[in-house]
Write a structure and sequence with these properties.
Bound molecules: zinc ion
Distance between the termini: 44 Å
Number of strands: 6
Shape: globular
Radius of gyration: 19 Å
Strand order of the largest sheet: 3-2-1-6-5-4
Number of helices: 10
Helix content: 40-55%
Structural class: alpha+beta
Strand content: 5-15%
Length: 286
Amino acid sequence: MIHSSEDINAKVKAIAARNPVYAEISQWVGDLLSTTVEASKNFRPSDLKLNFDPLPKAWHQGKSLLNPEELSLDWKNAKELFKQLVDQIKTTEDGQKQVQGLLQALAKGHDDIQTLMKAVLTSDLKAIQTTAKELKIDSPILTLLIRLSLRPALLETARAVQNRMDLGQWHYGHCPVCGSAPRLADLSGEGGQRTLHCSLCETAWPYIRLRCPFCENDNREELSYLRAENEEGLRVDLCGRCNNYLKTMDLREIPGPIILPLDDVATWHLDIIAGKYLEDKGSALS
Ligand SMILES: [Zn+2]
Ligand SMILES: [Zn+2]
């Protein structure tokens, strides 16, 4: 879902009020996000050939409809947007340190950026880290900028596909549209229905609450969670079988909607808590 600038600004304010540590970074990401929303008007509509009706049998058996590797996206506008975002971060002190490398990436030409974009689409962390090192930029910043440049095209493609499917019919832990893993979950409504949010195309789909989306483990004894201190409505769900975790926001306690790039950044401390827990657990076992 493409959120309006008003939604983005309201979310940035809510984050700053909840956890002032994130005030600056969420403002920064919020501004970049608003640029992507503005730019989405220039992107050509998805030219996917969606000639399936009913949905393919394989979809019901867990095969996502699209393969991120094969997507034909509006690369020209995505690259244009990347340039715009680089221009924008030049104005921040922290951003300035990164800009040399980012400009270098742009100077190397269209193909290089497109290769990087493909690496982000396929979650090829190694390729991203190698490039970030070459260009002397922080790899999370490079990933964020590339992801934001692709966002209008990805969200538009996902939207076109979502209209054709009944997400209530999808019972798997990976994204019904692109097959990527979820990045966040939310709980809402009476009883706290769980919804997962795709890390790539941001599609949201319902999922059983007491089951690990990564390995489908539903043994309650192996499922646990951690809470951040003094923070209502935020937690990390952990699976003792596959050792994966998922950050969860309870929208009965925290205002929605989920705006993935912002909510992800504003819950980085949960990634640290989960990482530390899993590390300690690993060393206790060895
Ligand atoms: Zn997806
Ligand atoms: Zn698991």
